[in-house]
Amino acid sequence: MGGDLLVKNGRIVTPWSVREADILIRDGVIERVGRDLNADGAEVLDARGLLILPGGVDEHVHMREPGLTHKEDFASGTMAAAAGGITTILEMPNTVPPVESVRELRRKRELLRERAYVDFGLYGVLHDGNVDELAGMWEEGAAGFKVFLGPTTGNLPAPSDSTLYEAMALAARHGFTLAFHAENRGLVEYFTEKVRGEGRRDYEAHADSRPSICEEEAVSRLMIFARRTGAKTLIVHVSARETVELLREAKARGLKVWGETCPHYLLLTREAHKKYGSLVKVNPPLRDEEDRRSLWKALKDDVIRTIGSDHAPHTPEEKSGDIWNAQAGFIGVETILPIMLDAALRGVISIRKVVSLISYWPSRIFGLYPRKGSLEVGGDGDLVIIDPGAETRIVAERLHSKHKLTPFDGLSLRGKIRYTVLRGRVVAEDGEVVEEKPMGEPVSPLRR
Questions:
Q1: Separation of alpha carbons 113 and 91, rounded Å
Q2: Which of 112, 132, 165, 357 could form a disulfide bond with 307, CB atoms 3.0-4.6 angstroms apart?
Q3: Do 242 and 387 sit in the same domain of this protein?
Q4: Based on the domain organization, do 207 and 353 belong to the same domain?
């Protein structure tokens, strides 16, 4: 399901260039890109003075359906994505039940199919009991597989090293991507017991219970396995400067090991706990200023390739209380692109880099390119159209998630998302969803 749309007079942004051009979308697919295009019967959108980017691809969201819909559901979560310029999401598997088999993958896909306001792919999960399911789930259309090495929502057990190695060998053989929550569970448990044993209940105790060595050790091990197997390996929510140095090494060696970080690690440090308390409890935790600066440099150096939101909604009750009982994570799918656009318009990074981080590389890593994340002829007509001269103010109560808990409430940003276009149809305008019926479809990696 797609529309006919001619977007005229805008400036097209790709990872390689910014140029003036029109885009013609027919039946939801980009048919032509060039100057002075005309098209009978197509809706015309004048983008004079505006920037045209490929629709955002957020490869790291937790929409909580099924089983945890008191936190978020797929309709509210994908409306938030559409309002924020994200046209494709990859949904994590730690729902109830977890997506651990072909049967559960099919069940979840059918459940969500009629509830999505943007296109979506589904991760499967890896644990010690389901490595034999991976090949079948991949053939069934799984976007990739998530591996939780550290404690997380749902408390899924970390796989053993033997399972991990076998899964990475399978990944190399079949071509799928493994995404890792990379924290050493044993070290997390050791440091948590140590910090809690000191009687600490201050908000920064959480950061001390999961120090950077937990992440560094896990990533070091994954690099060894990736070098031996050739598996496509994405380290999600990179938070520590030590991990950045490991990713530099992986890049220098030509390994298929990539890093993702999130806006909260780029904008906040552990000092934010003094202002926001348990609201900014996340896993891995917020770190120090030196870590934050290291992440920004890694973006500029192409060492970290993607930005994901780690959209992780909870209720106000679940986020309240002391630091040990509060749940980790907060919403982000609606604010990820505005925050990164602001960085570009302030000259911190280039606007081409934003496209690379939020559209191009997520699509490439998960085999969706060039259908998603591009403005190439033959790709889906997914666009986000930006007014670089306007401003945006994040107002929590206007966000579309069920529970509007964000430390970015009140943040003023340069640039404004004017239109989100999904397969040739405007689904959101000026931060409001205008498509009444969900038109999102499941997507799967392209088989080469």
A1: 13
A2: 357
A3: no
A4: yes
